[in-house]
Specification:
single chain; mainly beta; Lipocalin; four-stranded antiparallel β-sheet; three-stranded antiparallel β-sheet
């Protein structure tokens, strides 16, 4: 597996675009997944992409690569808050931290630990 410099870019139109940058600064669109409208920077763990949306959710979607390009976009988890989630999630020690416009900062972990 090579080391890439890939980024995910959210759009207000409801897509997340995967862009790869090579060592010369050239960019290539790898593909995109359909998402709900978002102003949040996404965070990636393995094949799961986490982002906040304008509806007030933290969403996890799949991002598997396939032989024909980028696949996925299947929602596997949604956590509902009381306001839009515009902050990008931060990941540390198996936990996901994010803020919502409902004035709370949330911390989620697998198994409730």
């Amino acid at each position: 597996m090579g080391i890439g410099n890939d980024i995910w870019v959210p759009t207000d139109g409801g897509t997340l675009a995967a862009i790869q940058q090579d060592t010369y600064g050239n960019t290539t669109l790898l593909g995109w997944i359909t998402a709900s409208a978002s102003n949040s920077a996404p965070a990636l763990i393995n094949d799961l992409l986490f982002y906040g949306n304008n509806a007030g959710d933290l969403v996890a979607v799949t991002t598997q690569s396939t032989s024909t390009g980028l696949g996925g976009g299947t929602v596997v988890y949604t956590y509902v808050t009381g306001g839009p989630v515009w902050s990008g999630p931060a990941i540390s020690n198996g936990r996901i931290y994010f803020g919502s416009t409902d004035t709370y900062v949330y911390c989620l972990s697998i198994g409730g630990n």
